[in-house]
Amino acid sequence: MAAIKQRRPAGGKKSKKGASWRFTLDLTHPVEDGILDSANFETFLKERIKVNGKTGNLGNVVQVGRMKSKINITSEKQFSKRYLKYLTKKYLKKNNLRDWLRVVASDKETYELRYFQISQDDEESEADE
To answer: Which of 16, 45, 57, 77 is least surrounded, with the fewest CB atoms within 10 Å of its CB?
Structure first.
């Protein structure tokens, strides 16, 4: 007797209709100190984020929003967190802030701008020698 193969229903693929990428940039420390303008940074991101290889092509795919000192980026299409770090570092370099601030991942979906920790003891000991 020949074995009869049963066919599975074609519903094996799941649609990722509700999938979205959400990232947050925490600018609290530099904004409170007045060395960074969050509104200016938001416009920079809106102008520079590429969608399908073109800048200024956000449409309904990528939303950039600002709440006080935090910037939220939501994307319906795949979006790299690393690309967000690249753009942030580019903005810091453009405004000559790269020497004082660094971009650190505080959790899976959040980047935070922190100051470099420069210890005063090292500088004093080098001056004594």
So the answer is: 16
Are the C-beta atoms of residues 64 and 45 closer than 8 Å to each other? yes
> Tens digits of per-residue pLDDT, 78-115?
989 999 999 999 999 999 999 999 999 999 999 999 99
Give the phi and the psi of residue 77 in degrees, each rounded to 5. -95, 160
With residues binned 3-state (H G I as helix, E B as strand, rest as coil), the percentages for the chain, rounded to 5, are 30, 25, 40
**pTM of the full structure:** 0.76
* Contact between 103 and 88 (Cβ < 8 Å): yes
Dig out the tokens for 3 from the structure: 């074995």
The tens digit of pLDDT for each residue in 21-30 reads: 999 999 999 9
Measure the CA angle with vertex 126, ends 120 and 129; round to 5°.
Answer: 145
